[in-house]
Batch of 3 targets.
Target 1
Amino acid sequence: MTAFRMEELRRRSRRPALAPAPPGAVSLAMGEPDFPTPAPVIEAAVAALRAGHTHYADQKGLLELRAALASGLPARPGRTWTADDVVITHGATAALAAVVLATVGPGDRVVIPEPAYSLYSDLVVLAGGTVDFVPLAPDLHWDLGALAAALPGATMMIFSNPSNPTGIVHGEQELKALGELLDGSDVLVVSDEAYHRLVHPGHVFTSALEIASLRDRTVYVQTFSKTYAMTGWRVGYLAGPREVVDAAAHAHRTVDGSLNTAVQHAALAALDLPDDVVEGMAGRYRQRRELVVAHLSGVPGLHLVPPEGAFYGFLRYDAGLPSEVVARELAERKVMVRAGAEYGPSGEGHIRISFAASEDDLRTGLARIVAHLGGARS
């Protein structure tokens, strides 16, 4: 590893970790569903263990799980998705790592619209690539003009949709505009769609795989974590162009090996859950989103673009303080949040609030945020 990469990774590792919550604190920091994993999923894992599914699985994942996931991908005219187009990974984290390590090399430039999930840039640095951060527009959607200037010559573009940390949904027209910008290029698109089932009223989710101009260049990354409240189970997957999928499968096999066999049987059970199980959780997030918007709208010194999806609000504040300082001050006032600077240069001056928390904790935490940051401070 080059000295540059070592230093860059050391610098990133020195970012302050989220401190343990003090007694009496509420956490609006964690991007983790507060619902239990549905009982049929747990029962399927137990049954799989008792049935002897305790040995290595296929390195790409159980054939029946890959086939089930392939059948649920958006239609691809002229070609049917098959199990061979899917790789089961150790969460979406490993899926992202596999595709970046398989396709990005020293000197390759990767475009990341930011604020963005910090793992994306960390992986690019680890692979020896160069991160080209492109700030978002004021409404937190893509700045298409800035992307048009950044994309020529890039190897890859990575984004999440719906977005962590902004809660923005990049809709059909925005995705089509990206496709037009990429026309004639070899840029690979990595679309992290972990929050695809968490879309709020007035907004419609469209997968990058549904956009004709993006379909053949997109690596689709997904996880069971958010949709099914299965964060600790670590089940993710990727799909996309066969040559990229095969390369990513090799990287994943080399670094991670096959995923826990019984857990893959549990994932199959999750796919068979009635839709009202997932919709019930999504409905609760929508209620909490309304609570967040109601509590923060119109507060002097605070500015929130209403979340369109996921379970995050990216709150801009007028206080002239670094976001890491603000997050530390709020922790002292017994509410935990994430510093906006964790998500890229444009994240400074913001904090990320998660509403994957109970309504009572939300009300308490939001009141403490408003009491500390409401009104300009310098």
Target 2
Amino acid sequence: MADPLAQIVGLLQPGAPFSKCVTGSGPWRVRRTQSPNPYYVAVLKGSLRYRDQLSGEVIVNAGDFILIPSAQDFMMWSEAPSADNDLVIDPVILPGGGYRVGSIDGPIDMRALVGYCIFQSEDATLLSSLLPELVVVRGEHRLAMLMQLLGDEAVGSKPGREVVLQHLLEVLLIEALRSTAELGDSPGLLRGLSDERLAVAIRNMHARPGRGWTVAELAREAALSRSGFHERFQSAIGMAPMEYLKAWRLALAKDLLRKREASVGEIARQVGYRSASAFSVAFLRDVGVSPARYARETPGLSGMAKEFEGAIA
């Protein structure tokens, strides 16, 4: 059976992250508003506090990890009481390349590895919307080991570094997402997969996207009434079943077109269309260009990561 979470993360095409070690001393505050890209924090020593407009305040202790899939406006601050005048505008860059917030001379009471992930897929906004607004993982040994590997690789210069970083990041995201028990009230794929009955329907959609699914058929797979299934799916995932299926098929089609390994007709059949012409009409309506033109003009993975260099702390 298909693993929807692994497929979603794979289609997001996570790029190599920028990682920096940040140390803190005394009172400090950091606010970031400039990037919609996923942001993560792994606290190695001490603790810090996090808050955004949707999630409220979260205490992050040593051994904890947080992932913010869409980090558009958030604040972090010290465990020590802080005020507005403790807001860090330009963190101190240390000789070894790390960042210091708070007192430059005081004893270190917080150490964290922070960084940006970069989803390089054109469908990143759609796909990342299926993730929780905030992922909090506490005390997971496997995650800590992955973070250590990621940090070591990020500062190294061994051959194949970018490939290793990309695969480590994929594993890290999957491990973080499947480890979390703190989903809050936000809808998304994880909430759907945590519902045993909805999970059956979701896995079937991912395993057989080419089948002509109806809401009634998916409801039977989930052992629910049609109306009950529709309402439960909408509440858990944040979109209707057919809307989700359409979005998944479109994301798959784009990925297959980018790879240029199959004809438009073959791709049409794989994602549930009876003919290449029907697929082309639907694709043109939703994307704005024909499948053939999309495959021809869409570039491969780019150096998007450079845009965010230096925007870590």
Target 3
Amino acid sequence: MMAGGIGSRFWPVSRTDYPKQFLDILGTGETLIQQTFRRFEQLAPLENIYVVTSTDYTGIVEKQLPLLPKENILSEPDRKNTGPCIAYASFKIFQKDSNASIIVAPADHLILDQQEFEAVCTKGLQFVETCDALLTIGIKPSYANTGYGYIQFNKEAGKDGVHRVITFTEKPDAQRAAKFVSSGEYLWNSGIFVWKARSIINSIEKYLGDLYQLFKEKQNWLGTSFERLMIADIYAVCENVSIDVGVMEKANNVFILPASFRWSDLGTWNSAWENMGKDVRNNAVAGNGVLVIDTTQCVVHASNEKLVVLQGLHNYIVVDTKDVLLICQKEKEQDIKQYVNEVKKLKGERYLYSVNDNIKPAPAVVERVY
């Protein structure tokens, strides 16, 4: 489980020191990482579940996942994207079991239909058991989402319904996304991977040679008291690169397994709105003190202690915390990350870090119309 991101597009609820994977964004009673952990707890014994996270978040992981062995929390001193993250976990797991199969998944995604998810994962594990392959799980697109990556695949299915990957496209514009969906040749990139530990390590050696050498030279330190020093040394000099760009887009043994379970990467407030309960005017409201009047298709997040009255809004994001009020058109949600950068530049880092009410799970969804 990869749990090191900042989740800046969920600002101001998600903060640098307490990001979205540790919050109950949807008001379900569980944080996103707790949901992900429970999902994989059905597939693997506890000792086989690993979480890779920032050093700053290890205490939060320990608190939210008390059943997870502490030695299975892998701490990253710097954020260097998914390439080093996956390399670290893969070398660690390979040391324990050279024949291990691995499922890699973000800790902050929403997946519904546990039974279908388990069936897809099982099919993927069976495929890589007998095939030297890098397998990704693709989601059948339901509409032309411009915030997701797309994967083009060969329509001719091979063993176990698996297809060979042709191309990767990251966040296309609306016109291209619509074309992708209508063609039937593209799936959403879920960011969930299945492979043998040896397969991904061999691919890292081939396509990210410098990163491979850094881990190879110091792999004997894994599992010792020097592991943290080893990782600090590696992360101080390794490249910031995603596994998609560094390996998946270059390798010739990349396959995709189509899946139809309900999935969202919960990357933005609009994706939260899509997955929250709504009133008859399509408002998704989290906060017992929120009154919406002549308001439609908005997502509102506020504390239970404050009265928030909204009138005449359509298609807006409204997020009210103790120290920040965000009012933003939903169509501009991809720009929130830029707004955070502007806040940092003009106001310093004060509003990038949490105050007391920001680290509490979001309240349950309350539906009301006036």
